[in-house]
Structure formats: C-alpha cells, structure tokens
Amino acid sequence: MDMEDQKQINFTFEVDNFLEKESMISSPNFLSGGCEWFVNVHPKGHDFEDHLSLFLCVANPETLRLGWKRRASFSFVLLTQSGKELCKLKEESCKLFCAQFSRCGWKKAVPLKMLHEKVCGLFKKHPDIATNFKPKNQLVKTAYMNILLGHIEALDKPPHSLSDAELSNAYRDLIELTEAGFKLDWLKKKLCKVIKEREKNADGLRVQEHIKTLNIKLNQEKVKSATSANKDFSMEQTMWNHKAELDKEKAKSSTSAAKDWLEDVVHSWNKWKLRVGFTDLGYKKID
C-alpha cells in the first residue's frame, strides 16, 4: 500500500477456516502514511454471492476533521495456508478516500469457485479419501482439511526447498490424519518420494562440497609444492654460487701460493746471494 508521498508498507491478515465463514470479516487496524486503515473481507461476496469481496477502509472516519481526504494506491494478494499465491489484485491508479467514499476495493475480487477448486479437485481425484473419516464436528473437519491441503501444497514444492522440520511435521500429521480416517496412502508415497529426492540432492551437494574441498586442498598443495620447488631451486642456486666462489677462491689461492712460493724462492736466493756476497766480501784480499 502506498500513500501519496509516503513509502510502501505491507500488512498481512490471516483468516482461519475461511471456507466455513459466512459473515463479513474485518481485520485489525493498521497504520500507513500517518492514517489508520483496515480490511473488510466478505467470504460469500457483497452483492455478488459467487465471488469473494475485498475492501480497503478508512478507520474511524467519523472522528476525522470535516472535509478530510486521502489518496492511496493499494493491492491485495490472496495466499493459501502454505503461502502459495492464489491471485493478486492491484489498483492501477491512486484512489481518493473521503467522507462520502471511505472504502474502496473489489466486489468481485475472486470467484468462490476458485477457492473451492482445490477441495473439489482433491475429492474428484481421490473419491474415497474421507469415506472412513470419524470426526463429525464441522470445525474439526475443517481443521483436518486445512492441515491436509497445506501438506498437499507443501509436497508440490521442489524437495530441496523443504526443511527437515517440515518433512517431520508432514510425516507426523499424516499419521494423525490416517488415524482420523483419511485414506492417504498416495500422499504417504509422495512424502517418501520427496524425502528420497531430498536425500539424493543432499548427497549430491555433499559430493560437490567434497570435490570443492579436495580442489581447494589440491590447489594449496600445488602452491606449497611450487614454493618448495622455488626454495629448493634457490638453495641449489646458492650452493652453486658458493661452489663457484670456492673454486674461484681455490684458483686464486693456488695462484697466490705459486706466486708466494716463487717470491720465497727469489727472496731466499737473494738472501743466499747476500750471504755469499758477504762471505766473499769478508775474504777478499785488499791491497
């Protein structure tokens, strides 16, 4: 619902045992755009008995100041018990609400036939579904039927969208419905099929997750291996560099040693010559 120059708001109104209702139903008041509103629902129609009627109404119009006016655009969405959308009604233009017209909506919102189709279709497809149904109270019958329809709709959903809790509740309720007299072998088979499909999907997801984990580990090992290889290469390169330096030093040392040996020989020879010369000089005859 949108008020002029106001942000959109959503309001949800639930009606229990709707198919059993006869008189008009009014929702609690809700606030939008600083104004109070409520919804009127006519289960058996307003002026048209074969249609559901829906109206958006201004709350407490008699308490508003003289000459009040409001504009709003709004839509109605009808949902089943399981949350499945049956239909959507939307006003294309902004509607004016005032003292003379304090409500706006649809007299022929939804054909009642549409709302009964699911129940009628169910009994047409499974004519013996309730032949042994034990409870006689109409409210109890309606409550059981709502539970049954809710699970039928739920099991029509994709298996992966159903939680463990939903499947567990469905299994528990089917046992209770069977004990009440419903013949639901066909629905039990469907439930088992959904559970198996869900387990199959879960197994597939687990395999995919396992493969994903393995790929991550493999990539990590590749990185570690590459890092290790780089380290080994670096170490090997360092060793080769050290060896080259060592060989160079050895060569240098060998050359230096030879040079030193030669210098030692020359130096020793010079010393020897000096000694010889000194000896010669000492014994030379002088006139």
UniProtKB/TrEMBL annotation:
It comes from the Eukaryota. InterPro entries: MATH/TRAF_dom (IPR002083), MCC (IPR050804), TRAF-like (IPR008974). Gene3D superfamilies: Apoptosis, Tumor Necrosis Factor Receptor Associated Protein 2, Chain A (2.60.210.10). Keywords: Coiled coil. Residues 8-145 form the MATH domain. The keyword Flavoprotein does not apply. The keyword DNA-binding does not apply. SMART domains: MATH (SM00061). This is MATH domain-containing protein. The lineage of its organism: Eukaryota, Viridiplantae, Streptophyta, Embryophyta, Tracheophyta.
